[in-house]
Write a structure and sequence with these properties.
The protein is of the alpha/beta class. The chain has two domains: about 120 residues, Alpha-Beta Complex (Aspartate Aminotransferase, domain 1); about 240 residues, Type I PLP-dependent aspartate aminotransferase-like (Major domain) (Aspartate Aminotransferase, domain 2, 3-Layer(aba) Sandwich). Helix content is about 40%, strand content about 15%. It is built from 14 helices and twelve strands. The strands form three sheets. Strands 2-8-7-6-5-3-4 form a seven-stranded mixed β-sheet, sandwiched between helices. A three-stranded antiparallel β-sheet has the order 9-12-11. Helix 8 links the parallel strand 6 and strand 7. Helix 2 crosses helix 11 and helix 3 packs parallel to helix 11. It starts with 14 loop residues before the first helix and ends with a helix. Bound molecules: pyridoxal-5'-phosphate. The site of pyridoxal-5'-phosphate has 13 residues, from helix 4.
């Protein structure tokens, strides 16, 4: 058999597949992978059926259906007061993971370096390596998981061509402040660094905190790809739909690759999302998720887990288990799944060097009864 070399350094399956697989195998309640366990808005289901009936069943235009790009531009104008040209700045993608990969691919050449912050979404490093570049991970500083800007300055070399950030942040739930964006602008000003701003959780933001988008910072926007996921905004992660917003020249570079990767994206889903967004009746995911976060934190008070900082955004909550065990986090998460029927994600999985701070991540985007059933099991620990 001819051996096929790997294009990245990650080995085995992603932790999300592993923990969801274990949850299924042991019949555990799955608070590991980030997906809702409740129905999507009925209007969105109806619109998907309508799309197939009306004949939206063939290839969409390469950049995406004009009606969807127009709906996104109008939505951003309303929510962020920014002007985005739907023709030259928005490309519809099959999910944000693809969107991020394609942005890296548009930026990076062999031998380049790309900075990322850890803990990090687990596709970033493989995506950088699959493009022949070197990943430069910088650890965020616990407990608040803030960026140490001196470390960023020290990590920049003439080879640094990309920097990816994620706010609101998976897995910590932290959110960048306005001053983080100013720091970033200062740090990259005299460099050739292009930014990828992973804003998939922009609609999931709590406690009256504001999500600052890179699109609101004209200087940074001119050197950025911003990536989004409909799956996170409309509870339909399985549709794998997203979009990328970038200045016209970057969008051109992006589409040069996109046209030969997927070429176009699921047409009926584009129709449904366009109509749903434009209807103004898309149900408010933010307040619903904030309610779930509050309920989960309240329930967790009856367990021996400690929640240090409530998530400010995303649908994840970190907790420590030091009162229960001193096992390494991955071992603990597997034990919890097998022996106590609740699946979570160990935070070491988000570090290239598997840094273990004895933290696990819970996904609270679940029905109240699911959260109650999980906590009933955790109370017995
Ligand atoms: C930080 C982050 N970026 C990107 C994605 C990918 O989104 P999608 O499901 O649209 O590919 C996720 C999904 O969990 C995520 O947590």
């Amino acid at each position: 058999m001819i051996q096929l070399p790997s294009k990245h350094s990650a080995t085995g399956n992603t932790i999300f597949a592993v923990m969801s697989g274990l949850a299924q195998q042991y019949g555990a309640i799955n608070l590991s992978q980030g997906f809702p366990d409740f129905q999507i808005d009925e209007q969105l289901s109806d619109l998907l059926a309508e799309a197939t009936r009306l004949g939206f069943n063939q290839y969409a235009p390469m950049p995406g259906l004009p009606m969807l790009r127009a709906a996104i531009a109008a939505d951003f104008k309303k929510r962020y007061q920014v002007d985005i040209d739907p023709d030259t700045e928005i490309t519809i993608t099959p999910g944000a993971t693809y969107g991020i990969y394609t942005a890296f691919s548009a930026i990076l050449q062999k031998g380049d370096e790309a900075i990322l912050f850890e803990p990090a979404y687990d596709s970033y490093i493989p995506n950088i390596e699959m493009n022949g570049a070197k990943a430069i991970p910088i650890a965020l500083t616990a407990p608040g998981f803030a960026v140490d800007w001196d470390k960023v300055k020290a990590a920049i070399t003439p080879k640094t061509k990309a920097l990816i950030l994620n706010t609101p942040h998976n897995p910590t739930g932290s959110v960048w402040s306005k001053s983080d964006w100013e720091e970033l602008a200062d740090v990259v000003r005299d460099t050739d660094i292009v930014i990828i701003s992973d804003e998939v959780y922009e609609q999931l933001i709590f406690d009256g905190v504001k999500h600052y988008s890179v699109l609101e910072h004209p200087e940074l926007r001119s050197r950025s790809f911003a990536t989004y996921s409909f799956g996170k905004a409309y509870n339909n992660t399985g549709w794998k739909m997203g979009y990328c917003i970038a200045p016209p020249a970057y969008t051109q570079a992006y589409r040069r690759l996109h046209q030969f990767l997927s070429f176009s994206v699921n047409t009926p889903a584009q129709y449904a999302l366009a109509k749903h967004i434009a209807s103004g009746k898309a149900s408010a995911v933010r307040s619903m998720m904030e309610g779930k976060r509050n309920y989960f934190i309240e329930l967790m008070k009856e367990t021996p887990f400690t929640i240090q900082t409530p998530a400010r955004g995303s649908y994840f909550q970190l907790a420590t288990y030091e009162a229960i065990s001193d096992m390494p986090d991955t071992e603990f998460a597997i034990w919890l799944t097998k022996e106590h029927g609740v699946a979570t994600i160990p935070v070491s999985a988000f570090y290239h060097n598997k840094k273990d701070d004895k933290l696990i991540r819970f996904c609270f985007a679940k029905k109240e009864e699911t959260l109650e059933q999980a906590v009933a099991k955790l109370k017995l620990l």
